[in-house]
Amino acid sequence: MKKTSEHYCQAMTELFGSNGKPLANLVMAIASYTDAKSTVEYSLSPLYNYQYSSIGKLFERLLDFVDGDISLFSKEIETFISSFNPQQTQTGVIKTQLDTLPVYKPHSPTHPDRSCVYKPNLTVKGNKPVEIGYNISSLNQGFDAKWSIPLSLQRVPTESKGIKIGQQQLITFLKTLEREKSFVINSCDSSYGCAGFLSELYEHENLVNIVRLKNRNIYDYSPQTDTGGAHKIYGQGYNLRRIDERSNRKNPKTKELALAQPSILEKQPDEITHYFVQTHKGRQVKVELKMFHQMCMRSQNGHSMKHKIFDLIVVDYLDLQPLHQKPIYLAVCGQKRA
Fold first, then answer.
1. Of 93, 329, 338, which Cα lies nearest the Cα of 211?
2. What does residue 306 show for φ and ψ, rounded to 5 degrees?
3. pLDDT at res. 89
4. Within a domain: residue 193?
5. Which of 199, 264, 289, 317 is the most buried (most CB within 10 A)?
6. Full domain range(s) for residue 252
7. How far apart are CA 309 and CA 321, in angstroms?
8. How many beta carbons lie within 10 A of that of residue 297, not counting itself?
9. Mean pLDDT of the chain, nearest integer
C-alpha cells in the first residue's frame, strides 16, 4: 500500500512539475480526511503539509499550466490516470468496480437537477431512507492491495438510470485499451445484475462482469431446435434462495397462481471448493463455493439475454451451520469467463 501511494505521488510530481507535490498532498487529504466540510478545510489534514491559502493558489497555477482550458486539464488528468496502471503492465488484467453513489444537497435550492436519492435512515424510526441530492456513477480501477483510483466520475441526470451511465463509462474505457493485450474484470452490486446492463456488454470479448444477484429466477441454458416452432433456449428454472427458505416473489393478480421455482441449491453443482478464513476474534470459518455452469436469465424490456450465458457462484460462510441467513449469489458473465 505504501509503495503504491509513493509511486502515485511520484508520477503526479513528474507530470505536473512543481505543482505535483501540493496536488498529491491535496489528493491524499481528500481521500483520508472525512471531517472537512469545505475544500479549504482539507488543509487541516495531517497529510497536507501546506497553508490553507495554498489550495486556491494551487488551482490558479494548474489553470495557468493549461492556459485556462478546463477541458484540457481534464484530459491531462485522464491521461495521468490511464498511464498510472502498474497492474495492467504486469499481468494484462485490469480489475474495475462500478457503483452509483449518492451526493446529498438538501440545502442547495439553486443547484440544478436535484431529486430524491437513497440515504440510510439511522435517526428517526419510520422515516423513509431518502434525501435531496443527485447520484454519481463511479468507475474505479482496483489493485490487489485494497487500493483503487477513479477512472471516470459522471453525474446521473434525473431522467437517466445509473446502470446506463455506468454501461457507457465502461464501454468508453474499453475503447481506450488494446483488446489483444488487456482483459477487464468488472465487479458490480445487485443493481447491475439485470438484462439492461449485461446484455449490451456481452459482445465485448475482453470484458467479464461479476455481479451480485438477488431474489430472481435463473435457468439452465438448454437450447433445442427440434421443437416444431421457435427454438427453445431456457431449461429448468431455479430461484435464488435456500431449500428451506420461502420464496417472496409475488404473483401478478392478472395471472394464474404459479408455484415457486425450486431452489438453486437443489441442483447438483458442477464444482465445489472451500477454504478457511480467520475472523477478527481468531476463529476459523469455512467458506464454501458452489459453481453452476451454463446458466441464463430472461430477456427484459427489449434487452435480449438469449445465448448470453453465465456461471453462477454461491458463496456461503459455514461454522457447523450457515453464519448468514442468505448466501451470496455471484454471476460471472462474459465470453471468456472460464
1. 329
2. -65, 130
3. 45
4. no
5. 264
6. 212-333
7. 32
8. 23
9. 83
Amino acid present at 46:
P
How far, in whole angstroms, is CA 41 from its chain's centroid? 30
Task: Name the helix (H) or strand (E) containing 6.
Answer: helix 2-16
| Model confidence at 87: pLDDT above 60 | no
C-alpha closest to that of 277 among 314, 319, 321: 319
CA-to-CA dists, residue 266 to 223, 237, 324, angstroms: 22, 11, 19
Kindly indicate the confidence band of residue 313, based on its pLDDT and cuts at 50, 70 and 90.
Answer: very high
Residues 6+ apart with CB under 8 A from 112: none
Last residue of a domain, one of 156, 188, 220: 188
pLDDT in tens, 170-182: 999 988 887 777 8
| 199 inside domain | no
This prediction has a pTM of 0.76
- All three cell numbers of 271: 464444482
* Residue environment code for 44-73, b if the CB has 16+ CB neighbours within 10 A, otherwise e: ebeebeeeeebbeebeebbeebeeeeeeeb
User: Which residue among 49, 84, 119 closes a domain?
Assistant: 84
Do 254 and 269 reside in the same domain of the chain? yes
Number of domains in the chain: 3
Q: Which residue has the higher pLDDT, 2 or 51?
A: 51
326 and 216 fall within a common domain: yes
